Amino acid sequence: MSVICDRIVHSAWFQRAVIIAIVLAGILIGLETSPALMRDHGALLHLLDKTILAVFIIEIALKMAALWPRPWRFFAEGWNVFDFIIVAGCLVPAAGPSVAVLRLFRLLRVLRLITAVPRLQLLVGAMLRALPSMGYVAALLGMLFYVYAVMGVMFFGQNDPIHFGHLGKAMLTLFEVVTLEGWIEVMDIQRLGADMTPAWEELRALGAVPLSHPLFA
């Protein structure tokens, strides 16, 4: 019996079926965000969702049966534990506060695509192995932001106290510029002078810039 289950689990058609089920589960959870679809086809969507859940349960049962008489070896692999937790979470009764938890686990079923596609597992594994080095990358970026923020206060603080009035504002401005948010306004203020930009008068009218600022002397 275990030999038959092992052949089924490692067959190409079975793996493709699991991938299709995971993709369909992701599509269904997206469709359920539409009130109109839920009103008109809610029963059908729930039926399809239960069918896909049954496929996942059968998949785990077959994988454990393939390891018989030691089915607990299924939990020796981290990805199998990940799959089991997600599928088990989908079996939580949808009542009261557990509704949000159930929806979360149903959404996380999309991530099972990582366990179904070996190349995605390699990619995720590489990213996890690179995490320790990310701390040094963050430290380097933090130092660069700090240096450029200090330079911004020194060079542009007098002209543009809104964006470079002190170190905190300068670092926030640099972060906004890096995300390509509002960089044209920041550039125009430094290039033309704060008193030559239309936005400056609006900020003055709102009281964001004190009248005692040298530009208004």
Structure description:
The protein has 217 residues and is mainly α. The protein contains 11 helices and no strands. It has helices at 2-9, 12-31, 35-66, 78-89, 98-108, 112-116, 118-156, 161-164, 167-178, 183-192, 198-205. Helix 3 packs across helix 4 (78-89). Mean pLDDT is 81; it is low at 210-217.
Write the layout of secondary structure elements.
Layout: H1 2-9, H2 12-31, H3 35-66, H4 78-89, H5 98-108, H6 112-116, H7 118-156, H8 161-164, H9 167-178, H10 183-192, H11 198-205
Helix pairs in contact: 1-3, 2-3, 3-4, 7-9
What class, by secondary structure content?
A: mainly alpha
Low-pLDDT runs of 5+ residues are 210-217
Outline the biggest β-sheet. Answer: none
The backbone outline, from C-alpha atoms, is elongated
What is the succession of H and E elements? HHHHHHHHHHH
- For the secondary structure, the number of strands is 0
Query: Roughly what is the average pLDDT, rounded to an integer?
Result: 81
The portion of residues forming beta strands comes to under 5%
- The residue fraction in helices comes out at over 70%
Alpha-carbon distance between the two ends: 90 Å
C-alpha Rg (nearest Å): 28 Å
Q: What's the number of helices?
A: 11
